[in-house]
Amino acid sequence: MRFNSINFYINGDALTWVKDNCIHSGNSFLATLWWSWRSRNMSCLDNNNLSLHSICFQALRLKNDLDLGFPSPPNATPIPRMVHWSRPNFPYLALNVDGSSLGNPGPSSFGGILRDHTGRFIFSYSGSIGISNNLKVELSTVHQGLKLCWNRGIKKLICWSDSLDIVSLINNTATTTHIYSSLILVIRDLITLDWDIKLLHTLREGNACADFLAKLGVANTIHLVIYDSPHHELESMLLVDAMETPFVRR
């Protein structure tokens, strides 16, 4: 169910989480969600604590009942979902970040881009951390992006990452034993500085510019490159995002 943060419903994108799980897990997700909620209410209201085994059994039975009552039509065509860049509300700025690891582990690079509520380019960056993995490079791009924004005096910021795992790790307070806990704590220290910042999840179709910059970083031998004007191949992508042109998520 990809739910591993106690602050998920405060900092996460709950609607996206529910929709994605309904699409990919269907009745299994709905049955598990229902019995998780019901067991919580039984514990709080009736002091009736169900065992984990009992919750799983009840969820499985409900899932089977749902499968019988609402069978999927044969060869059903899924309804495509339209996704576009998430425009921030004024006066917030939007920082889109992404990481790429070719081979995981393998050559790993990152990128990010800052824009205002009109889609106007402010700055972007890309870089490489050498041989690493997806988790480390996704954390690294958040770290670099937040540090650059803070140093430029940004006071209101929404940071978008298409890695739900990273968003959950940073927003979750119980990660002191994680392999990258030191980097996570540095990012949290940045977040707690004197500014208004949110770290949220976006879908990859709405994160195309950051994805381009992350892949651009593979060619860089320099740890970090900052661009004060957009890369020529990025200009058309910026226009597409500013117009909120939707892309199909399959």
UniProtKB/TrEMBL annotation:
Pfam families: RVT_3. GO terms for molecular function: nucleic acid binding; RNA-DNA hybrid ribonuclease activity. It comes from the Eukaryota. Residues 89-219 form the RNase H type-1 domain. This is RNase H type-1 domain-containing protein. It comes from Lupinus luteus (European yellow lupine).
